């Protein structure tokens, strides 16, 4: 559950306060998204540029969440 939410519409920034448990769930979800996208790419060779970009975006999000997780534990 989100405990606190701050939004700065001008800067386009959202600050969420969540529990460690919820962060773990988010990390697991993003990992599953990466796995699913990789499987989709492998099943549909040659792959589309948009599918590869989506995988790159998911991997970047995965790395960002991993950094946050490592700071927490």
Topology:
Layout: E1 4-8, E2 13-17, H1 20-43, H2 49-72
Antiparallel strand pairs: 1-2
Helix pairs in contact: 1-2
Please explain how this structure is put together.
By secondary structure, the chain is α+β, with helices and mostly antiparallel strands. It has one domain. The chain contains 2 helices and 2 strands.
How big a fraction of the residues is strand?
5-15%
Summed up, the domain count is 1
Distance between the termini: 19 Å
In spatial order, strands of the major sheet run: 1-2
Rg, rounded, reads: 15 Å
Task: Describe, in short, the structure shown.
It is built from two helices and two strands; from the N terminus they run E-E-H-H. By secondary structure, it is of the alpha+beta class.
What are the defining features of this structure?
73 residues; two-stranded antiparallel sheet; 2 strands
